[in-house]
Amino acid sequence: QVQLVESGGGLVQSGDSLRLSCAASGRTFSTAAMGWFRQAPGKEREFVANIGWRSAITNYADSVEGRFTVSRDSAKNTISLQMNSLRPEDTAVYYCALMEYGRPTYDYWGQGTQVTVSS
User: Fold this and answer.
1) What's the CA gap between 73 and 76, in Å, rounded?
2) Which of 38, 57, 76, 112 is most buried, taking the most CB atoms under 10 A from its CB?
3) CA–CA separation, 84 and 26 (whole Å)
4) Distance CA 28, CA 6 (A)
5) Selection from 43, 1, 22 nearest residue 113 by Cα
6) Chain centroid, CA 71 distance in Å
7) Tell me: the pLDDT tens digits for 11-26?
8) What are residue 10's DSSP bridge partners?
């Protein structure tokens, strides 16, 4: 089993920056990738960014490309999401997720952290 704990959410103003972190514990030796997803009220959960655990290759949703940066610290089993130039439409609960090798989906999820951007 893997446990994921996010931190760093909060209330900020439009244009501000915020950094989210996610710590993984437990059976992390099979980690293939970790990612960030978000869910706004009344909307489905959507992909934000991910990073390959060994390759460090990153992918971003078009809506955050150039504003958000995902990074990982494999020694500490953590990933971070640096969010700059935040917009009100970035308001959502942000979830950290982990995918294991040999699995097609993210099987492990954190509890989520709220990010609210006021205009």
Assistant:
1) 5
2) 38
3) 31
4) 16
5) 22
6) 10
7) 999 999 999 999 999 9
8) 115
DSSP per position, the chain: -EEEEEE--EEEETT--EEEEEEEEES-TTEEEEEEEEE-TTS--EEEEEEETTT--EEE-TTTTTTEEEEEETTTTEEEEEE-S--GGG-EEEEEEEEETT-SS--EE---EEEEEE-
- Specify the length of the chain in residues: 119
Residue type, 119: S
Q: Are 43 and 93 in contact (CB under 8 A)?
A: no
> What confidence tens digit (pLDDT) does each residue in 36-45 have?
999 999 999 9
Single-letter amino acid, residue 79:
I
User: What tokens were used for 30?
Assistant: 């099979």
